[in-house]
Amino acid sequence: MQEINDRLKRKLGSNFNNIASYYNKHSFVQNNISLYLYQRFLYKKIKKIKSVNQNKLSLLEIGSGTGFLFRILISSKLIKYFNKILFVDKSKNMCNILSRQINNHKNISCNLKNKQIKIISSSLEKLVCNDNKYNFNIAFSSMTLHWTDNLVLSIQKIKKHSDDILLLMPTQSSFHEVKNILTTEEQNQIFMNLPEIVQIKNIAIQNNLCVYFVKKQYKYSNIIDFFKSIKYSGGDFNSINLKQQNTKSAILLKLLKHKEFQNLKEVTITWHFAIIVSR
User: Fold this and answer.
1) Is the dihedral of CA 125, 279, 198, 240 positive or negative?
2) Whose CA is closest to 80, among 62, 52, 105?
3) Cα angle for residues 143, 184, 212 (degrees, 5° grid)
4) E-assigned strand segments in 91-201
5) For residues 126-139, average pLDDT
6) pTM score, two decimals?
7) Which residue from 170, 7, 135, 139 is spatially nearest to 63, judged by alpha carbons?
8) What's the confidence (pLDDT) of residue 247?
9) What is the mean pLDDT of residues 147-162?
10) C-alpha span between 72 and 207 (Å, rounded)
11) How confident is residue 233, by pLDDT bands cut at 50, 70 and 90?
12) E strand or H helix at 130, and its extent?
């Protein structure tokens, strides 16, 4: 099992590197839910901290991708409240794209010139946090922690080095429109296992954290478009579980023949998310 997990992690890293240049075009779900997380939680959290803390703030982002949060902080001008930011992402190519954005902003704006902004290409598991420079006011992560080897240890590691945390991940309840048509075996062949709601609730309770659950529905041109959006935003359903291609083709054909997805009509797919925040 560990060998399979290692192969999946290597494949995952390769996927995100391969799609980095066109990730922004296909990551509308990731961007939409991250924007919701910012508007509903992060903006208020920053303002609340600043009301009692006149010092400049520090921010850690796990799974920074191509810099969606960075762009939000720039456009909202909240970047002015921070003097130290650490962006962490497993994909070197995505880190390079983010680095170019930051450098471009440094060249045209004095708001970034005196800030300590660092990018590290690393998984959360391999990130070394053994001194005070890895202590942050806020830790933010959206659509990343479900990729980690151990969700409990990952959250505890982030919590240890942050005063406030704001973490979001999809849950196993997602995609019921597709899953209800398939057998459990077929589901396992095209979808990775996501965190269960009960598991997330227990983690929150054991670590004195709050948890919220959000349901979002997204429209796709057809069922094939749904799977393409997963593939081209890094989570390639054709490779996540390393199954044979002809098996997946048979499953896709079964879905296309189902009355819900016939004639390649527009489909609505439900995503369920868990949001974990500090008390």
Assistant:
1) negative
2) 105
3) 35
4) 116-121, 136-142, 162-170
5) 76
6) 0.88
7) 139
8) 59
9) 91
10) 29
11) confident
12) none
